């Protein structure tokens, strides 16, 4: 019989947690440093030969418990999304003349609604029309920007059809808003003029 080969004892492995980075009551792996977090936990910290590539905001939440860390990461993602949305609004307001005109008309409609003391149902109608027009204008701006990025200055009939259709959506929204405004404001304006 061939001589038996002695087996090496199993090397103890670093117990990893499901959160990816926290090790409870365990020594750091070789080649890394360790910092003690709350409840005696260790976090593996990359040495100088392994530069840290994590975002700075992630380093601030990595010590949290799994539930609180997930909530912090979700909150950061939500705030980032809102930031991008406000950047889009700023771009549309600063570059699109029609969007600025629609915003001015919306402010006028809100002011007139306050003066005429419209009822809650009419407020819903006016607010919905304002949101519809601004939404269509934003989508039209986004579509035009994407198409111009793809085709550049080259003329393409399909791109023209897409832009014209998007502009038609804005016109339909504006027409709907005008009809709604006449339905809400005209009777009250007539009553106000007859009382003078």
List keywords for this structure.
about 200 residues; mainly alpha; Helix Hairpins; 3-stranded antiparallel sheet; 5 helices; about 65% helix; about 5% strand; flat
Task: Walk me through what this model shows.
The protein is mainly alpha-helical. Among the domains are: 22-53, no CATH class; 96-194, Helix Hairpins (Orthogonal Bundle). It contains five helices and three strands; from the N terminus they run E-E-E-H-H-H-H-H. Strands 1-3-2 form a three-stranded antiparallel beta sheet, with no helix packed on it. Strand 2 and strand 3 (41-45) form a beta hairpin. Residues 14-38 and 40-48 have low confidence and may be disordered.
Layout of secondary structure:
Blueprint: E1 22-24, E2 33-36, E3 41-45, H1 56-61, H2 66-95, H3 97-116, H4 120-151, H5 157-194
Antiparallel strand pairs: 1-3, 2-3
Helix pairs in contact: 3-4, 3-5, 4-5
CATH topology description of the domain at 96-194: Helix Hairpins
The succession of helices and strands, N to C, reads EEEHHHHH
Helix content: 55-70%
Shape: flat
User: CATH first level of the domain at 96-194: which class?
Assistant: Mainly Alpha
Side by side, the strands of the main sheet go 1-3-2
Q: Which residue ranges are poorly predicted, with pLDDT under 50 across at least 5 consecutive positions?
A: 14-38, 40-48
Describe the sheet with the most strands. Answer: 3 strands, antiparallel
Indicate the structural class: mainly alpha
């Amino acid at each position: 019989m061939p001589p038996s080969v002695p087996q090496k004892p199993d090397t103890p492995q670093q117990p990893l947690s499901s959160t990816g980075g926290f090790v409870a009551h365990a020594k750091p792996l070789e080649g890394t440093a360790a910092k003690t977090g709350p409840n005696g936990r260790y976090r593996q910290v990359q040495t100088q030969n392994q530069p840290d590539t994590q975002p700075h905001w992630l380093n601030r939440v990595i010590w949290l418990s799994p539930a609180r860390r997930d909530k912090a990461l979700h909150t950061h993602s939500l705030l980032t999304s809102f930031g991008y949305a406000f950047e889009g609004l700023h771009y549309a307001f600063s570059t699109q003349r029609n969007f600025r005109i629609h915003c001015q008309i919306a402010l006028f409609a809100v002011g007139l609604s306050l003066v005429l003391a419209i009822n809650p149902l009419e407020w819903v109608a006016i607010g919905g029309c304002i949101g519809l027009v601004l939404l269509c204008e934003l989508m039209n701006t986004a579509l035009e920007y994407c198409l111009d990025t793809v085709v550049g200055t080259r003329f393409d009939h399909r791109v023209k059809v897409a832009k014209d259709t998007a502009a038609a959506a804005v016109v339909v929204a504006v027409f709907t808003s005008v009809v709604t405004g006449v339905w809400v404001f005209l009777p009250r304006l007539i009553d106000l003029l007859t009382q003078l």
